[in-house]
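Hey,
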Amino acid sequence: MRNDEREQPASEDLRIVYLADHPEALPALEKLLQTEWADYYGIGGPGNAGNDLRAYSNRDHLPVGLLACIGAQPCGMAALKEASLTTHRHFTPWIGGGIVLPRFRRQGIGTRLLLAVEELAQGFGFKEIYAATSTANSLLVRNGWCLLDLASYNGEDVSIYKKML
């Protein structure tokens, strides 16, 4: 890793809040998901970003979305949800929907969101949490997650991780 690629600490102004408390962020997040995950949320994809974001807008039951903000600017999100991969329904809960806006990446925001979702899962009484990813392997490994399985899901190779809480 080059020095200019090293992850920089997130702004001290970074806050992690409930998505449910910030409905004004939904349109920008919907557009982000449609752009960044076009195969799933884009035109003709199987997902509906708006529906998923509205579903994540809870505080006291799953799924629960968390929003990262620097000042008033949303810069990322993640969710704690009951299920993720239909091939692995026996695992619960999952972190999902984790994304950081491109201009805010490599500042530790993904790590802060991951830790906040872990804490949220503990608060709900879970003893373990799962994740499936094709892109965030190093983030999960750096934060103590263990690789459980490799799978093909919706035509994409994904790694499935577990962390004891």
